[in-house]
Amino acid sequence: MILPAVSALSRIRTAGSVGGLSIGLFGGSFNPAHPGHRDVALSALRHLGLDQVWWLVSPQNPLKSAAEMASQAARLASAEAMIAGHPRLLATDLESRLGTVYTAETIRVLHRRFPRLRFVWLMGADNLAGIHRWRHWQHIFHDVPVAVFDRPSYSLAALGAPAAHRFAAARLTGPARRTLRSARTPAWAFVTMKLNPASATAIRAGRAPAR
What confidence tier does 138 reach under pLDDT thresholds 50, 70, 90? Predict the structure, then answer.
């Protein structure tokens, strides 16, 4: 059974009132959501010891063309379908509800709204490779621990990117990754996982991903 968005919001409020939970924030366009996204979220639960992962389906990525973007409702529905009722994964339109556009802004608002929760920002290696183009990107690393997940063909570019060099001393490796959720910021980790070739671009183009 697919849980409706209202159920996700109720669970978010419950998490905020309970407090003490470690929450992965998995932002993206999800245009559409696909099994690779689900693999990242499940890997975050497994490798980082998180209690929940909130999928933040963005209203519109400022760095992507709106012409190529499905409606937020359609993208949220695809995320809900991909989660398929998993009790620790939540698909949300929180950024629309909070009125935020940029990731750094979203994180700061969530800290104010849910001061009893610990947040970890989750992203694919492709985003680490380009995060230096995001508004106030360094604030993200100072405000929350960051977990970067391996993606096909992006590892070398990501680990050689400006952000990886800027915060090289803050990288946690090996067993220390398990402490990321409670680490003093800045702190980030690169998480290797079984690579899923699924691609939103390929799905939109009607092509099956190469295997």
Answer: very high
